[in-house]
Design brief:
Blueprint lengths: L8 H21 L6 H8 L3 H4 L6 H11 L2 H12 L4 H18 L1 H8 L7 H11 L8 H4 L15 H8 L5 H23 L7 H19 L13
Helix pairs in contact: 1-2, 1-4, 4-7, 5-6, 6-7, 6-10, 6-12, 7-11, 11-12
Length: 232
């Protein structure tokens, strides 16, 4: 996808037109039926123009799908604003993320599972730069599994970084927790999208959170904090 300066009004305006046209088509025809040609028709541009800004239709869908996460973002803001404990906060963020993901699996899969020929973190941050008025915090706070571990050796997700800073885990432990939780989430989301299991949304959430809590318990050295059962 094309890079753009936050002050480049013309480029941002054109990208917004394409994104909003994609959102309109997703609401009307469903995410499975989005094509560059359809987006071009509804936006009034030539299809070739879209490829000046996006590498493929999946990147368009990626950007448009984030718009459908606004209710999730609002709930996350409430969790962050009312959080007193970083570990409880981390668990609540994951549970909320799983609930919204499994209720709208195709939307979240288009962001976190599809091959978009670009790093999700790169496109997420471009979206936040394009629509800064929609957000109170940075992308790293909103998305508990989004990290650049393969680019930054010591990188862990922001909510888990807060746990490290407060002594719950070492950095190496946090990196392992991030990796295992991310892999389990991706596995569950992929199975749901591809109709490979018969879990209800609640069952999928409970099963995923059971594993996330178990991973945390394996590294949490404070026996007084038993996270097998919800304590919030």
């Amino acid at each position: 996808m094309i890079d753009f300066d936050k002050d480049d009004v013309k480029v941002k305006r054109i990208i917004k037109v394409f994104v909003n046209s994609t959102i309109e088509l997703m609401e009307k025809d469903g995410i499975e039926n989005i094509t560059v040609r359809k987006v071009a028709e509804i936006s009034g541009y030539n299809p070739a123009t879209i490829y000046n800004y996006f590498d493929n239709s999946r990147q368009l869908i990626f950007f448009a799908s984030i718009n459908f996460m606004k209710d999730y973002f609002k709930e996350i803001e409430q969790i962050i604003d009312n959080s007193n404990d970083p570990l409880d906060n981390y668990i609540k963020l994951w549970e909320t993320f799983c609930r919204f993901s499994f209720e709208n699996p195709k939307i979240y899969y288009s962001i976190f599972g599809e091959n978009i020929e670009e790093r999700p973190t790169v496109l997420i941050n471009k979206y936040f730069k394009l629509f800064p008025e929609d957000f109170k915090y940075t992308s790293s706070v909103y998305l508990p599994l989004l990290t650049d571990n393969d680019e930054k050796e010591n990188s862990v997700t922001q909510p888990l970084t807060n746990c490290v800073d407060n002594g719950y885990f070492t950095l190496e432990e946090a990196k392992k927790i991030d990796e295992v939780n991310m892999l389990y989430y991706h596995g569950m989301l992929s199975l749901i999208v591809n109709n490979r299991l018969s879990y209800t949304v609640e069952e999928a959430i409970d099963k995923t959170m059971e594993h996330i809590r178990q991973v945390i318990n394996n590294f949490n050295e404070q026996p007084k904090r038993d996270l097998k059962e919800k304590d919030y």
